[in-house]
Amino acid sequence: MPLRAARPPGDASGPPGPEEPRDVTWRRLRRMFTARATRANVLAAILTLALGFAIATQIQQNQEVELSTLRQDELVRVLADVNQRAARLDQQARELEGQRNELQSGADRAQAATEQAQARLDRLAVLAGTVQATGPGIRVTISDPNGGIRASALLDVLQELRDAGAEVVQFGTVRIVAGSFFADAGTSVTVDGQSLTRPFVVLAIGDPQTLASAMNIPGGIVDSVKRVGAAARVDQLGTVNIDALHTPKTPRYAQAVPEPSTAPTPR
After folding, report:
1. Which runs of E-coded beta strand occur in 117-229?
2. pTM recorded for the entire structure
3. Which candidate, 50, 186, 231, 236, has a CA 20 to 30 Å from the CA of 140?
4. Per-residue CA distances from 137 to 153, 186, 206, 209, 214 (Å)
């Protein structure tokens, strides 16, 4: 076998050695492209932060310089303009608050007036008999097998009920109002021209105990109907429903008097 001279170290001449493994090559490439916290990288980050801070400071200083370079009279005008703007904003705020308060007050007054008008209308409608009514009261049942009860006796019943504080009264199917009247028609009794059937049933809304006491007082309605062969029974009820309605008529002669004006008299 022929002898070969030994190759000195570091000599690149001669045939290449065996190829290095692939995983070693990839590790070298990753090390080349991986960012490392070297001194140069840290210095670059510090310089970047310092540059940003310097820019922000410069912007603020420029704004301050704009005011610092103004003369005294110019600064006075700037301050006066700011004060005027603030005064205008305050005035607008006060005007808006005043409008809000006025609208709220007006709405409250209108609502209160509407509620008062509705309450007054309800009271007048109950008194006029144009709406149904309900409440505590009594029921008076008068049995009259002999026909001895006449119009005057029923008128006494109504008068006693009114004196005892009855607010709404109904005889049979007839609603009693201020202009109601009783009359005899042969053996029948009529109210406002309508005949009442026997036994007579009277409904009244008011304090039950007071109304019942008025019917049962000695010499009162219960005693008086007995003298003509009739009998009266009084029942106190927690709820009395009066559903008969009255159709009001237009007055021919009476006219409403207008309310006096509340406007101040001119001097």
Report:
1. 133-143, 168-171, 174-175, 182-185, 188-191, 194-195, 200-205
2. 0.58
3. 186
4. 21, 32, 5, 8, 12
| Size of the chain in residues | 267
- Rounded to 5°, the CA angle 223-135-183 comes to 45
The residue whose two tokens read 């912007």 is 59
Structural contact between residues 205 and 168, judged by C-beta atoms closer than 8 angstroms:
yes
CATH number for the domain whose boundaries are 132-242: 3.30.70.1880
| Residue 183 DSSP code | E
Query: What would the pLDDT profile of 140-150 be if each residue is shown by its tens digit?
Result: 999 999 999 99
Ranking 202-206, 230-234, 251-255 by mean pLDDT, the lowest is 251-255
Three-state DSSP string of 166-180: CCEEEECCEECCCCC
Q: Where in the chain are the domains? A: 132-242
Question: Would you report the helix, strand and coil content of the chain in percent, each value rounded to 5?
Answer: 50, 15, 35
Residue carrying structure tokens 């308060």: 101
User: Using N-to-C axis directions, what is the helix angle for 208-216 and 151-163, rounded to 10°?
Assistant: 140
Q: What is the pLDDT of residues 109-139, one digit of tens each?
A: 888 788 888 888 888 899 899 999 999 999 9
